[in-house]
Records
---
Amino acid sequence: MGNIFGYARVSSRDQNEDRQLITMREMQVPEKNIFIDKQSGKDFNRPQYKKLMRKIRQNDIIYVKSIDRLGRNYTDIQEQWKYITKTKGADIYVIDMPILDTRREKSLLGTFISDLVLALLSYVAENERVNIRQRQAEGIAAAKARGVHFGRMPKPLPDNFYEVYRRWKMKKLSVTEAAKECGMPTTTFFDRAKAFEKSTMTKT
């Protein structure tokens, strides 16, 4: 029997990993052997996960509460699963899905069933990640349609902007000269001028 490890992950620093840790303790995973990452599961470029991979040896076991805590990318999950079980010679136990316990069935049929379930759950995890991104994009698009502004608010226009803009439009100033008088980069002046023109046309 090798060492017992646990891996937990939450997507951001303000999320709480307590439920995962309670489960790890119930499985008698030593506190010093629990590795926690607080970042997205889109890939495996995570400091604590990498540290765990350096620690594990043949016949060790890794507990993870659910497959999406391991990761959310279908291809990467399967690659890491093979790396842990085949290359490292360690075992994995997904607590919420006991059939994904590589210690149970070492036969060809057992491995086939385990791999089949893993493929299905990995697909579901990635599909959910894609759906979340799509919902976020749709939400942002809907908010923009309502006039909600994202990102930093533009700085207020200088007091002389409209007078400088009028002279620029009358070709009394070059865009470089106009920008200099307004104290802004040339591209910024040009963009703000075009935005002003657009807003004026909309109002009319």
---
Amino acid sequence: MPNNPLILRGKEVSEAIKADLVQRIAVLAKRGIKPGLTAVLVGDDPASQVYVRSKERQSGKLGFNSEVLRLAVDTTESELLSLINNLNKHELVHGILVQLPLPEQIDAQRVIEAIDPAKDVDGFHPVSVGKLVLGLAGFVSCTPAGILEIMRYYNIDPEGKHVVVVGRSNIVGKPMANLLIQKRALGNATVTLVHTRTPDMGLYTRQADILIAAAGVPEFIGADMVKEEAVVIDVGINRVDDPGTEKGYRLVGDVDYKAVLDKVSAITPVPGGVGIMTIAMLLSNTVKSAENSLK
């Protein structure tokens, strides 16, 4: 008998979040505050350009002071650090986003640490990460925060569930695992984190009530690695060649979507799932920063 899984569409969740932001932005406007988000793009990486344009467009629609500073690929680290220092001091800038990856002459970690934690809307600064681990209020890395919002919207409660996170990046895997073990709503899960050095990864993924795939490997998770009736959240966005399409490629996740569809109880599509939530949470963090500036 064919399964009829719940499709966890990020667009629906994103629109609900932005509707809430509109109200919060209106309250800020009465106090003379307009959320300010400045993105810094160094070089001409095509994927980064697409991502930054999307952020610029969506923040503009909400009425942000939205700005993109585009720097040459040969920009020095000291020049970038000087720019960040100026943005840290700028009262109209509430959020600073330095688009990664950066050219090889620039130390990305040094740049991240140069951003004022009060304006770290990406949630990458060690202060933000430390607060996340300790369960303190602060900026949460946007993709994990977006995954929690998908779970909230679709009433997927991780409490008491076994969640397996595939991938240990500082952007998704580590913060995701830390969020899910917190003693609070959308937490209290038992979390296993697996990665490329984990032998027999399927041994663990097949135990997952909720499987979060963030390995960056196209269609790596097959039906044989997924438990019956599991919830699958696919973070991967991978471009694979497909001569049969107009663009010559298609986007796929880390999960073999078609293979697992009849087995799972719920799943995020790619595209249209987690990816769109990352920008929504960046906007949310920027509004939060603007609200914090009033305190």
